[in-house]
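hey all, quick one before standup. I had two proteins in the batch that finished overnight and I want to keep them in one place so we stop losing track of which output belongs to which input. First protein below, input sequence then structure tokens straight from the run.
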Amino acid sequence: MQRREFFKVVAGVGAVIVAPSLITTDLRADDGRLYKTYNKVQLVDAKGNPILASKLLEEENYIFNYPYVGVSSFLIALPEKTETDVTLKSESGEEYIWKGGIGKKGNIVAYSSICSHQMTHVHKNESFISYQKKGQKTMACKQTGVMVCGSHLSAYDANKGCKVISGPAPQPLASIVLEHHDDDTLWAVGVLGSDKFHEFFKAFKSELKEQYGGARKAKKKVKETAQVVTLAEFTKDIIQY
């Protein structure tokens, strides 16, 4: 089993190494990591078959709902190995460490779709936020191969933990922490960084009722499995600038 995220919690003169799926609360450790565990969930396709890391198409926008039923997240196999041990900072000034991509190539990443500026997110009718391929020009910045929110042209570096490159976004997208097992399966286990989940549920009650039958249902934590589809299958209209 490959576990890309491990956390050292300093306690007195000793140190304890803790796997992500064993942490049950927010972790703000002395070594600068901000993490919260959720249910350990296997990523599967529409037929319930396990998603295999080696079968993901590079630079395809995949979507799965995690850690809550009403919160969509991106899954992306980048065209190259990501940076590692990237220091990021939340809007409130807390620093944390993004360890990098997973998989044999170290190129698989996952991020919450909720933009940290004004919570633009993937909607079933349209999506203003997505990963834009290398070589695909964007109005948000000169760099390509980035996550872009078309609402106000915030750009995030998917290769560096979705660090903000340009635009009004005040912090990186929250990272979904993944595990890659020896059988090539993928599992979501938690969220790294400062998320916008509380504000999201409060701001989009009517939308959540329309899409998921109410905020209460949308707030249920995903259990056991999360279905992965392409962004084109999830939403009717992909809007990119």
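OK second protein, same deal, sequence then tokens:
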Amino acid sequence: MLELLPFVLGVIAAAILAGLMAGLLGVGGGIVLVPVLFWVLSLIDFPAALSMHMAVATSLATIIFTSISSARAHHRRGAVDVALLKRWGPGLMLGALAGGLAAKFIQPDGLKAIFGIIALAVAVNMAIPRTLVLAQALPGSTAINAAISFVVGTFSALMGIGGGTLSVPILTACSFEIRRAVGTAAAFGLLIAIPAAIGFVLSGWSVPGRPPYSLGYVSLPAAALILPFTVGFAPLGARLAHSLDGIWIKRAFALFLAVTAVRMLISAFG
């Protein structure tokens, strides 16, 4: 039992940080959970071939439940764009399922590289003082919206995140009001996490060396340990967001994300 203590403490620390960041910045906890889970698994000599896949899949499993709570709260405040949810929903779900199934054929270094490159881009975007605006509205073309949502779903699944990290910058760049972008992205999380988690369960079902009580690449004990802390600390993060200087919170998180991304890239290409 004692040999599991570092893993348990590390998972709890990751879950607390993920919950706080979700409340502070409105980002999905996966952007924190995945790298921290990966490093914790690496520290306890977990098989390197499984660490990244297990971290991504377990993060997605927790997002299923946290996104329900978040989406309901935003919907009560009228911040979920139902029309956009219907327009992007099929693409998000198909992309997420494709990403989860494709994970079986992607080496761990490939997943690290995907996470590192996109996380670095997100860190730069968060550090920029002004929101980048590219268009006055979302494209009207159904095909373009389907392509955008499919890409968001695919890469969110491969990164183990709920979609807000990628979709909110895209929506705000198309002049989408920020609170409505965040609220709608919370609902995106559920549409992404369910098919993506199913994909990771199927793609990891027969992989040897997985820890006990795993469904494919999803660690059920780790997911059960994470959920109470992410859900419990998100409200505290939201309260802190109203008492702390938001710009410095964003910059601090951008720095954390940049360092994490660089470390992930070094691990992938080193």
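Flagging for whoever picks this up: The mean pLDDT is 86. The chain has one domain: 2-269.
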